[in-house]
Task: inverse folding
């Protein structure tokens, strides 16, 4: 998935084509998660009470704080693109740095509380819970985990973009790579916006 | 090797020479050839496994392998043939090679990505091969990896599934690449309705690859996670639901059969007008039926699950949709037939194989409609009838379409002509052996022979004997077929730019094509398949 950034390296002269390719790639990402959303909705319909109960065990404050952090990172990402389009390289680099920092913060606090409470797949504590709660936490770790993989991939892409901006390979005339990376980062955010209510606000 | 002016793509031109020049080239033609050799290698291995399985059903050879090995054999035969031959199938081979030529472009939209998708393909194949010798040994679940057995078996399902996951990326990237190419890189004047029909088929296929493959990817990830950390989504012991797996698996894997067949239909659509010397009948009907198959085909997946205990309403709905998806396929068959009517037929090997495609695909398609009927489905579920049906579609359809495309475009790809007589000679054993092998399976299935069984009752002896002998005849034909091409690759006579008198753009350039495809990008002023008899084409 880290190819997202390099896909279009040699084809940026066809701006629209590069954009189209990226959107198609994002579509596959949405569909990747959609399989899990199907699983979630089916399981939630099957175990409504267990899901309600399990959801209350997650810390909504952490979830909402995480959302705030991630949305802010989307803002700085967009600002980085605007900056490069205006030819302000230093400002763009600063915004990219903040974006990556916020991405790291977002993932650093996830999972710790659940694991401390013994709520992880395969733990004896979780195995003793009702089936619906086991499925809930299975989905929780899978979906936030897959989201985490995407954040890490996004951080990798942004690191490459930062280097390219610093070296002047991305500038006010050739910014499609940065723009496509931004699209990817926003997608990762959008997915999180759906994960938040499904897990943290389920109760 | 080239016609004298520009260097052919077969000659070394980049900074690297020889093999290294091939595996690092982003030329769509070279990547197509890489895919050709790799998929055909896997096809040969898969066919070899098939021969062994047929032998086991013959009494004297019954103890050739153990029951456990037999399970591993049909699993790996399926994984190889599905994920490494028919799903990649025509798009990465002939799509890569011919799409830019057919639409008058110099390459695909993302050449480097194209090369990466071949790397993904090879990586996935190596991982699948590695799964045979590591962990608990080769997977024994069947290519469908059904839970809960795939969660409980001690064999190396995790790695086999990981291989399929990686192969999915290859397929998806090819889809993204082709769709973008078709949108952005058609030659000036080539409107959508002037585009040849193989690109139309690749376009419809590309959308299925993009829309369906991610669902398989996530399903396989869940199987891996289930086996490694036990997340419980498919595991009934932990509150999960095995039927959810079947739904997610078939949401991809049924549309995947259209990933396999639509490009083969597209290739046949290129072949028929060339040898009928007239324009295709029903251009729009064929173009849009590809898209219709892709659309409706995405909504029929649960017909694989009629015996799983779904609600009667769901069963009826999926049965109806299954019947509906046969309509656009039938539209194509009627249009192909009508194209030949009153054409001035020039009978050549590619046409023979294309007609064989239509015949075998029709049997495969009609047996498919039979299975779409709920009552019949219960009777034939999990029997040899299913096995016979999908071999008619996948091998008789996609496989035969692949062979027809290979015979049609071989002179273009390598600049040399094969022995037409040998191609005809190979056809007889292929056709006779094929029908002995798979028609017997249809009969065996109706008699009640269950699929994937290591052993069978004496009442099925005759059917199995006919099928096994058929498999030998079929392989004999395949050996003649490919030996002919291998000889032609090195010793064949020069083919010239347009040996068949085709009018699509690939015949307007040299054989083999120069690196840049066209000296000047052509401008299109008329519809595809417009013949001009007065001027000799």
Result:
């Amino acid at each position: 998935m880290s190819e997202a950034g390099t896909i279009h390296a040699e084809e940026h002269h066809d701006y629209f084509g590069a954009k189209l390719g990226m959107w198609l790639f994002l579509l596959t990402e949405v569909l990747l998660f959609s399989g899990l959303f199907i699983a979630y909705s089916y399981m939630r319909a099957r175990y409504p009470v267990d899901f309600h109960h399990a959801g209350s065990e997650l810390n909504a404050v952490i979830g909402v704080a995480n959302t705030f952090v991630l949305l802010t990172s989307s803002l700085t990402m967009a600002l980085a693109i605007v900056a490069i389009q205006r030819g302000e390289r230093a400002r763009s680099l600063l915004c990219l740095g903040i974006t990556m920092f916020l991405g790291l913060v977002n993932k650093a606090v996830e999972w710790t509380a659940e694991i401390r409470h013994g709520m992880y797949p395969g733990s004896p504590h979780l195995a003793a819970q009702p089936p619906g709660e086991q499925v809930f936490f299975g989905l929780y770790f899978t979906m936030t985990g897959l989201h985490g993989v995407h954040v890490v991939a996004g951080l990798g892409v942004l690191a490459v973009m930062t280097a390219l901006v610093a070296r002047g390979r991305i500038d006010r005339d050739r910014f499609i790579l940065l723009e496509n990376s931004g699209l990817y980062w926003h997608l990762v955010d959008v997915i999180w916006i759906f994960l938040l209510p499904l897990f943290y606000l389920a109760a | 090797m080239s016609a004298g002016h520009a260097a052919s793509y077969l000659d070394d031109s980049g900074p690297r020479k020889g093999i290294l020049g091939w595996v690092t080239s982003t030329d769509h033609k070279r990547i197509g050839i890489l895919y050709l050799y790799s998929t055909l290698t896997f096809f040969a291995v898969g066919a070899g496994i098939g021969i062994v399985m047929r032998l086991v059903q013959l009494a004297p050879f019954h103890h050739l392998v153990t029951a456990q090995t037999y399970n591993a054999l049909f699993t790996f035969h399926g994984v190889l043939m599905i994920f490494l031959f028919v799903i990649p199938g025509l798009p990465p081979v002939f799509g890569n090679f011919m799409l830019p030529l057919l639409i008058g472009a110099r390459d695909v939209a993302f050449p480097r990505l194209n090369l990466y998708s071949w790397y993904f393909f090879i990586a996935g194949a190596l991982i699948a091969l590695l799964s045979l010798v590591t962990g608990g040994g080769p997977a024994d679940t069947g290519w469908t990896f059904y839970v809960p057995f795939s969660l409980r078996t001690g064999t190396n399902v995790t790695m086999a599934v990981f291989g399929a996951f990686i192969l999915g990326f290859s397929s998806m990237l090819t889809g993204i690449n082709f769709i973008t190419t078709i949108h952005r890189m058609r030659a000036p004047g080539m409107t959508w309705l002037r585009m040849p029909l193989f690109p139309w088929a690749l376009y419809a296929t590309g959308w299925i690859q993009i829309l369906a493959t991610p669902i398989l990817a996530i399903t396989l990830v869940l199987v891996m996670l289930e086996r490694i950390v036990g997340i419980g989504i498919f595991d009934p012991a932990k509150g999960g639901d095995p039927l959810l797996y079947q739904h997610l698996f078939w949401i991809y894997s049924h549309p995947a059969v259209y990933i396999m067949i639509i490009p083969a239909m597209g290739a046949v659509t290129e072949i028929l007008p060339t040898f009928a010397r007239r324009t295709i009948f029903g251009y729009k009907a064929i173009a849009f039926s590809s898209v219709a198959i892709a659309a409706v085909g995405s909504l029929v997946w649960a017909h694989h699950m009629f015996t799983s205990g779904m609600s009667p309403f769901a069963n009826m709905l999926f049965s109806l949709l299954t019947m509906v998806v046969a309509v656009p396929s039938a539209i194509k068959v009627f249009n192909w037939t009508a194209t030949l009517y009153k054409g001035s037929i020039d009978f050549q090997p590619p046409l023979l194989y294309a007609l064989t495609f239509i015949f075998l695909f029709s049997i495969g398609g009609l047996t498919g409609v039979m299975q779409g009927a709920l009552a019949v489905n219960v009777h034939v579920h999990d029997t040899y009838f299913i096995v016979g049906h999908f071999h008619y579609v996948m091998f008789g359809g996609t496989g035969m379409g692949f062979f027809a495309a290979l015979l049609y475009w071989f002179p273009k790809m390598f600049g040399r002509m094969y022995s037409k007589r040998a191609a005809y000679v190979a056809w007889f054993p292929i056709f006779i052996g094929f029908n002995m092998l798979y028609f017997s399976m249809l009969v065996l299935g109706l008699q009640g022979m269950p699929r994937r069984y290591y052993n069978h009752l004496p009442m099925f002896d005759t059917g199995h004997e006919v099928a096994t002998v058929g498999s030998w005849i079929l392989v004999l034909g395949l050996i003649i077929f490919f030996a002919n091409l291998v000889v032609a690759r090195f010793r064949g006579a020069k083919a010239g730019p347009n040996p068949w008198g085709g009018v699509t753009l690939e015949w307007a350039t040299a054989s083999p094509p120069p690196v840049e495809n066209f000296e000047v990008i052509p401008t299109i002023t008329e519809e595809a398949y417009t013949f001009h008899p007065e001027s000799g084409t």
